[in-house]
């Protein structure tokens, strides 16, 4: 199953988005508790509020938008549902995740206030992007390989986590 193109596509998208999400989450404590910012762990924990808001918005938006867009795409092709109908929505992830990474890097490089870009705008963007990449890619894999979709989904999650771990193992030093 690892050689199926949709599985390769899905686990790469999931692994990259998840790796950047966790890398920023790990680096957050190192940056904000450093002598320049001197945040306490309780203040550093407030960075999870935008992550919660981004996850809630992403959960609502991804379910509603993927369904509506899939319905719209199927009406364009005489009512036939195609598995790749929702793949177009990955543009949301392609914009939001790199924008958050750039916002985090800019905030650290310019030593802006910790609430300026990083927490209240950027961190929510990466969770919305991660929500969309999960739904769009996993729905695509599930619809493409319906008889073996449970194995494919396990493979996507497992390989994505292994690649994200390898990436994060090198980010921390």
Automatic annotation (TrEMBL):
Organism: Cryoendolithus antarcticus
Entry protein name: Uncharacterized protein
Keywords: Membrane, Transmembrane, Transmembrane helix
PANTHER family: MAJOR FACILITATOR SUPERFAMILY, MAJOR FACILITATOR SUPERFAMILY (MFS) PROFILE DOMAIN-CONTAINING PROTEIN
Top-level taxon in the UniProt lineage: Eukaryota
Predominant location: membrane
Bilayer disposition of the protein: Multi-pass membrane protein
CC annotations in GO: plasma membrane
Transmembrane annotation, as ranges: 6-27, 120-141, 153-172
Compartments reported by the entry: Membrane
Single GO MF descriptor: transmembrane transporter activity
